[in-house]
Amino acid sequence: MDLNIIALIDNKIVGNLTFRGGHRPRIRHTGEFGVSVLKKHWGLGIGKELVKYLINWAEDGDIVKKINLRVREDNENAIDLYKKLGFKKEGIIARDLYLNGKYYRSIQMGLELD
Fold first, then answer.
1. DSSP 8-state symbol, 67
2. Does residue 26 register a pLDDT over 90?
């Protein structure tokens, strides 16, 4: 089960969220998402609204029981947002991301839905 959401301002895409759910029976209840917002529109709550929509969508259904994400370890604003939305830190992934000649660790976070 997959979900793609876009955020529009003046009919222009300023953010998006993609959720990829498990397609095999034993992992069908879980999935991972990624979210991005154009830098010009940071701080407006767009990312928060996209993630809240995902959570509500999953809660309204009866399939998704766990939402996962990975976030760069130094992205404190995103980490704080995810914590406020109920996500818990589950682990660290070393050398998970590579940008401008440097490796970054990411934090694995998850939200269990009942």
1. E
2. yes
